[in-house]
Amino acid sequence: MEITGRVTADAAVRRAGEKEVLSFSIAVNDRYKVAGSSEYKEVTTFINCSYWLSMKAAQWVKKGAVVLLNGRLGMHVYINSEGNPIGSIDFHVNAINIIAFAKRGSDKADKEKTESVQGGNSRTAVKEGKDKAGEDVPF
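-> structure tokens emitted (139 positions)
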């Protein structure tokens, strides 16, 4: 399954036993027209994501970036310390595609970076920076 959303905070590398996992959260916005009205309602869904294939992706998965993710959906339900049921939507990511980079500081504006994130059978190439003429690259 594929989902697209905006990263809510910089990705963090955690340890789960002897393995590392890249953890981040995305916000998915949905907009629909209310029946019998000309009003639109906007709903935001937050999804917790985990990526086990390459920690190199952490340098690109930053707050504000728009990402297209491929993977599988899951749920986590538990009872908190106050006795209330809590649920979260989890996404086990197989591939990450950066649709729009997070805004960056001007000190990096002239650098060109190319990085590949590999995992499973997929490969995502990520490029940022300026072209040879000094103009911003639109992707």
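The domain at 2-32+40-76+85-95 is CATH 2.40.50.140 (OB fold (Dihydrolipoamide Acetyltransferase, E2P)).
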